[in-house]
Amino acid sequence: MINELEFAAYVGLDWGDRRHSVHLQVAGERKTESFDLEQKPEALHEWIARLQERFRGRLIAVAIEQRKGAVIHALMMYAFFVLYPINPKALARYREAFHTSGAKDDPTDSELLLDFLSEHSEKLRPWIPDAEPTRMLQALCEQRRKLVNRRVALTNRITSLLKQYFPQALDWIGDVASIQACDFLESWSTLAAVQRVATAKLQVFYRRHNCRKASVISERLEQIARARPLTTDLAVVEPYSLIVEASAAHLRGLIRAIQRLDKRIAELFAQHPEHDLFDSFPGAGAVCGPRLLTVLGTDRSRWNSAVELQSHSGIAPVTERSGNSCWVHHRLACAKFVKQTFHEFADQSIRYSAWARAYYDLQRSRGKSHHAALRALAYKWIRIIFRCWKDSKPYNEEAYIQSLRRRGSAVVEKLS
User: Fold this and answer.
1) DSSP H stretches of helix in 196-305
2) Which residues are within 8 A (CB) of 15 and not within 5 positions of it... i.e. 6 or more apart?
3) For labeling, which of 90, 185, 298, 375 is most exposed (least CB within 10 Å)?
4) Selecting from 3.30.420.10, 3.30.470.20, 1.10.10.10, 1.20.1250.20, what CATH number does the domain 2-129 have?
5) How many whole angstroms separate alpha carbon 118 and alpha carbon 167?
6) CB 227 within 8 A of CB 191
7) How far, rounded to the nearest angstrom, does the alpha carbon of residue 58 sit from its chain's CA centroid?
8) E strands, 81-215, in order
């Protein structure tokens, strides 16, 4: 175990936008050293080189309040560093134990990180980064999800604006989050503009965007010809139409960016040695498959039990007790991307897995909301995914259903 190895020194490093605060303690000594580092790659690597020479390449434990960012990416390059990312919430509670006033400053945090690490390193789990392809896949998946969130926000904004001056467009542009919608709104952002266009040109527009049904095109053209404006107030129409045009141009860039990320993610996922395992889960597909892979990683020692993963993801419920009261609710403090990944995979799985659909329906019949039922299903899926991952065996739907039958599960009764 890496925690049983002997460290030459312990470091608490608090990252800053301009300067990094550092506290260092040599193993076996009580005295600590403190100093600042400039937020420059040269300054950071020069300090690392001095540490390597001073301690002759022996292991150094580093506590830092992040898992991502420029500093931790730089530290990952050096094999003699053993990194301990500290949860910000855990550090905040540790700080409150010594500073009840709530005071917070960078030097104190780096000192607390050092104290946290040197006194409790045996209770902390070092972070062992995955290989580069897995980390690249993880970064791409996380950034894609952020772009999707921005796309959703932008399409909601466009929809809201159109409803206020040009609601008919929502019936004519197709999916708001599509290139067709962007082309339509950038060309004709008002009813007056689209009604001035020749019928033949509109027909070409729809065919060019793969709308092949003549009946659909004909119906839209008839609606455009006889439509009446919701408002003719230029104080509303002109500014709103300009904002819609700008938003459509922005949306086009997001759609293209997501498509490029999808292509690269698909390439990396297809080449990954864990591809067959994570592609075996029903509904994982091109989106959830790579995300599940990056959540669990390739280091089989990262998670010792499914319960650990359930708690880390935020899918496991929290039970709060006080006196005679007891309150069970879903977790708010958790890794949001991980929780979202399992939640969205559970939603996809009910379309492809017979037992998952049966389990979801069972939860709904017991009065649970859609999202509560999905969380319950995700909780079950984590146990299955963890076991498959731990054993390096792809998922087998029929084998799991047979297992449910042997146990006399209530889910079996709902299987058709």
Assistant:
1) 199-208, 214-226, 234-271, 275-279, 285-296
2) 64, 65, 66, 69, 71
3) 90
4) 3.30.420.10
5) 63
6) yes
7) 36
8) 81-85
Q: What topology does CATH give the domain 134-268?
A: Helix Hairpins (1.10.287)
What digits encode the pLDDT tens for the residues 144-161? 999 999 999 999 999 999
Query: How far, in Å, CA of 130 to CA of 38, rounded?
Result: 28
Burial of 28 (C-beta count, 10 Å sphere; 0-12/13-18/19+):
exposed
The full set of domain ranges for the chain reads 2-129, 134-268, 275-414
**Sheet of 9-14: strands edge to edge?**
32-38, 19-26, 9-14, 60-64, 81-85
Strands 19-26 and 32-38: antiparallel
Sole residue written with tokens 């050293």: 33
Amino acid at site 224: I
Q: What is the pLDDT of residues 162-212, one digit of tens each?
A: 999 999 999 999 999 999 999 999 999 999 999 999 999 999 999 999 988
Helix (H, G, I), strand (E, B) or coil at 262: helix
Stretch (H or E) spanning 342: helix 336-349
In residues, how long is the chain? 416
